[in-house]
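Standup notes
- DV: blocked on the single-chain target, sequence here:
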Amino acid sequence: MPGGNESDYTFSIQALERLLKLIAEHNLNLQIKVFCGDGHHDSNAHYRYLHEKDIIPIIPLSENSKHNTFSQLPDNPNTLLDSDGTPLCSAGAKMRHHQYNTQRQLHVFCCPVKRNTHRNGKSTYVAHIDECPQHQDCCPNSTLGPLVYVHADNDLRLYPPIPRNNKQFKTLMNLRSANERLNSVTDSYHIDRSCRNVFYGLIRLTLVSIAQHAIIRYNDMVKRSSALVLCTEILDTLHLKIPHNITGK
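- DV (later): unblocked, structure below
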């Protein structure tokens, strides 16, 4: 719990580094695979650090820096890039991200109008020529071509292991949104106003977390049983009786 003068931009890396050291020191069977952060974490420092720790970044491009800093691939000057780093085909259309090779750390982009579909019970790729700006297949001998290969180290920020337009990226980012809603509930307890002692604050935060989990468990249990039945069961375990003036309401 840092002071109010500490930005999450810098504190996030410090906190993650401390966590990784604690996991190693205590030999915990725990591995951090994904880091979810908002646009405040969209910095080259974060991507380099996460890359070194083999952690996948799930970070949206910041509103202040959504534009790509270069218009061509450094290792392939003939390939033009869109503002978000997506390669453009010879017709000027944004190419489709096909896959990411983890071992080689290589992104593969393919023709944007060639997509997978099912025909006669079989999986096949079909070229939708009418969607091409030039209305032609410029690489008829290839199922997916033309292909463009982009090494992640060209720009770790623009070419994360999970592309931002990928369904998996959106699913993981939604988990972070759920966590933000939980933080909003935590803030409603006004822990930051409770005391100036960081240790007392941590104790209160722990108690709030216990209360939140209890509420979640109760709401889940009440879906399968009534509140009155649950109350009776709890009192029975405590060898108490429910007062006669309490109703199911």
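- Follow-up: The chain has a mean pLDDT of 83.
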